[in-house]
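If it is no trouble, can you show me the amino acids of a protein and the tokens describing how it folds?
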Amino acid sequence: MTDAATNPTTATPPSDADESQVVLVAGAGGVIGRHVADEYLSRGTAVRGLSRRPVAGARWKHLAVDLLDRDAARTGLGSARDTTHLVFGAYIERPTTREQIEVNSALLVNALQGLEDGGAPLRHVTLYQGGKAYGAHLGYFNTPAKERDPRLIQPNFYYEQEDILRAAAARRGFDATMLRPEGVVGYAVGNPMNILMVIAVYASICRELGQPLRFPGTHAAYDALYQVTDASLLARATVWAGSEPRAAGEVYNITNGDQIRWRHLWPIFARHFQMDYAEPQPVLLSEAMPQHQDLWQQMVTKYDLVPTPYEDLAGWSFGDFLFRSGFDNVTSTIKARQHGFADCLDTEDRFLELFEELATARVIPPLA
């Protein structure tokens, strides 16, 4: 371990903690990275969280490193030279496929190179992918999608990153695992790419306006099968992958393990928010919801909510995309179960629990 100036913060180690692990979570400000860092910390593992901005409330040591700058990455990662496990959740959105590939490949290359230059004794890297690996962003794809399905001819930054990681792992002798969640739900301050927050803020505003809760997407999406991945479950899968020998070099779909139809859930959401329910009405959230920013600020004062910038609360365009995806989105989780990760959650129950957690934390108004 390094000296106290660079030693990552740790929780009190439980009896089964692996004290030889030092975990670096890249993208610790996102919903995935934040939950992974907290999960490792709860198990007594030494954790550092890497992001460009500090993460509010984090109990682990924060590294402010710009991974797009090769020199800055090399310098910044010098204080993480004892890293044994890299969890890579950093991501930058870009408008074109080519730009996505270039910028997100650079993030990974600079992170790996920076750790190598510092002499980090890297043993494992976890990389996150998603439904785009199967073409979920393009339209219909064969379901249930399996990890052995062939790649698409369409270029994809997931493919590029995986190839970069596998080549580095073969050269340097560490293991790598790729995890593919879908529709990750959980809360992290300032991370709006999250369908949980889209629904919670949309429902809260509709209730404040005295309107019923309506599904704002298409009828096709209302009836299609969908799935989500709870961020806490994904964090547990990450910890498992980092220490499971069978996970070395493998790709795993990680979801809650069930499928949903929005048709079944939205009336349940309405009852939970103590609202009337009405039939779906397609509305572009990205056009409608920014108009209610002033109302939300009034709600922050009225209900003593956490003062989060409105643009950081919910990704309305992300909601539009999901609520207009009129095809089944289902991936098989059999491989992960066969290899030893059998964790699962009831998605309906978990949504309601998360709504309660958001209200208790005063992120949204009280539900009662």
Observations:
- The radius of gyration is 21 Å.
- The CA atoms of residues 9 and 62 lie 9 Å apart.
- The first strand starts at residue 22 and ends at 26.
- The longest helix spans residues 97-117.
